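Data availability (excerpt). All sequences and predicted token strings are deposited with the supplementary files. A representative entry, Fanconi anemia core complex-associated protein 24 isoform X4, is shown inline so that the format can be inspected without opening the archive.
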Amino acid sequence: MATERDLFGLETNLQGIVVVEKTQMSQQYFPAIQKFTVLDLGMVLLPVANQTEASCLIIQLVQEQTKEPSKNPFLRKRRAALSEPFLLRTVQQIPGVGKVKALLLLQKFPSIQQLSNASIQELEPVVGQAAAQQIHAFFTQSR
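Structure token line:
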């Protein structure tokens, strides 16, 4: 089976994209697919109404690849691959923070330094009031 790179001549910096056709049958599975794809795999999930819409979307993705890379939402941000799992596990050590909250926090605050300097007001929209207070207290109690 040919990969998307082989088919479209795309560079390897495209992140994973999952295209899902939403039908009456697939609708019941969509929340689970969404959680797995986005939170567990860190990939982009793009729901489409039909196969025609999917093909138009793929054409658009290929065309976007040739435009300005900094504005392309489907390109990966360059990060150190070895530190990501370590960083995720480190953030999960904060009381009240599991895998889902850790992933959300790292999307908003990509480093421990940024996370530790975040105010409760900055943390609240990401993890809620109670968790924001716990996280803020974790970083400020030893200062």
